[in-house]
Write a structure and sequence with these properties.
Blueprint lengths: L2 H18 L4 E10 L3 H11 L5 E6 L2 E7 L5 E7 L5 H10 L4 E2 L2 E5 L2 H10 L4 E5 L3 E6 L6 E6 L8 H4 L5 E10 L3 H10 L4 E6 L2 E8 L2 E8 L5 H9 L2 E9 L7 H10 L8 E2 L1
Parallel strand pairs: 1-4, 6-9, 10-13, 14-15
Antiparallel strand pairs: 1-5, 1-6, 2-3, 3-4, 7-8, 8-9, 10-14, 11-12, 12-13
Length: 273
């Protein structure tokens, strides 16, 4: 056997093991978003943007509501009510800095295996279990994400809760603004997430592949860009989301006007149809 082929034959099993050993990510599961006025948010989402709202409940010092999609992904809007609870205090403290998304939850097929993989690669994490789900939360503040596995993988919300006038189907992409895109790419790659770099208009972007979705890392070179202003003020954070719709035609001009106006503010929820 030629030397080059021999080396390849030896390395191939190792390469295959490395790829297969990664945590198996399924999709972006949900994104919690801290808001000060949850009633105003519900009016914006339902009356102006055409989303169906699923009411949440008062618990752990917070009140929440949801925009849910047919593939199981969703946006969770949270407002704090009682800072004597750890969760209520977390959202209260977050809102002292800004409104907006606090983290990205990534669905995995096996939370225990994900936690074990992270620990083998010297990544500190904390696993929490309850009857509904198991979560694996990173100790480091960046990236702001956690992994989640549901006890009942076949459970789906009702069609009534996941059907929207604007024909929204699922969360497609989460946009993550960063100050150092190469360091951010390395941080995601360290978690076993495949990354792809490309140029986009006046920005450099890196797509971190999460099952059928992407986490899009973006840094702007133009001072007039919203991404630049966001990073200049907050250093990094979840900048917005892309939501896939079944049919673009039902999108009303007033919705597009509202979406455009959202682009003028940071922090923001960016809904790209």
């Amino acid at each position: 056997m030629p030397k080059a082929w021999f080396v390849f034959a030896v390395l191939l099993p190792l390469l295959c093991f490395s790829q297969a050993d990664r945590p198996v990510t399924l999709r972006i599961d949900h994104i919690p978003i801290a808001v000060k006025d949850i009633d105003a948010v519900k009016r914006l989402l339902k009356d102006t943007l055409g989303f169906t709202i699923k009411e949440g409940r008062h618990h752990e010092g917070i009140y929440n509501c949801f925009t849910k999609f047919e593939n199981g992904s969703y946006l969770e809007f949270v407002t704090p009510e009682d800072t004597s609870y750890a969760i209520g205090k977390f959202y209260y403290n977050f809102l002292q800095v800004r409104q907006g998304a606090t983290a990205i939850a990534i669905a995995v097929n096996n939370a225990a295996n994900t936690a074990a993989w992270l620990q083998r690669h010297n990544i500190d994490c904390k696993k929490s279990v309850n009857p509904v789900w198991t979560t694996v939360e990173l100790t480091d503040s960046f990236p702001s994400l956690f992994f989640i596995e549901y006890a009942d993988k076949n459970w789906k919300d009702t069609k009534q809760n996941t059907t929207h006038i604007n024909t929204a189907e699922k969360l497609a992409t989460a946009w993550y603004a960063v100050d150092d895109i190469h360091a951010a790419e390395a941080a995601f790659a360290k978690l076993g997430i495949i990354t792809i770099q490309r140029n986009f208009m006046q920005s450099v972007i890196v797509d971190a592949v999460v099952g059928s979705n992407k986490l899009r890392l973006i840094r702007s070179f133009e001072k007039k860009e919203g991404v630049y202003n966001f990073v200049h003020q907050y250093e990094r954070g979840i900048y917005g989301v892309t939501i896939r719709v079944h049919d673009i035609m039902p999108i009303k001009p007033c919705w597009l006007k509202t979406i455009f106006s959202l682009l003028m503010y940071t922090p923001k929820l960016l809904a790209c149809f």
